Amino acid sequence: MNVECVAGRCSSNTNCSNQRFQEGSSVSLSLSICGQKGIGLIADQLIEKDSFIIEYTGEAIPRGDYYQQYANRPGTRNYYGVQSNTREIIDATQ
Asked: Domain span at residue 71?
């Protein structure tokens, strides 16, 4: 998880390179049919190390709740959770 500087409040002023969300900078991406797996997100260019790719959004929920939620959904095959720290998972399923 990254924390971003707020424009106008950073001591680096206009030299700050930690405002990627605000600048809207990201990698060129496209959707592609990936057989039985469904739809995949494909990079249209080489992604260099430490590059910002995309913002991942969803509900931050406790790990135990996340796993219990999916254990109670028989037939669910696709999960969209990303662990943000040792206690929470960001669930972008909805």
From this structure: 58-94
pTM above 0.85, yes or no: no
Give the sign of the dihedral formed by CA 89, CA 43, CA 20, CA 93.
Answer: negative
Alpha carbon distance, N-terminus to C-terminus of the chain: 20
- Position 35 in a domain: no
| pLDDT tens digit sequence for 37-90 | 888 899 999 998 878 888 888 888 899 998 888 777 777 667 778 888 889 988
Q: How many domains are contained in the chain? A: 1
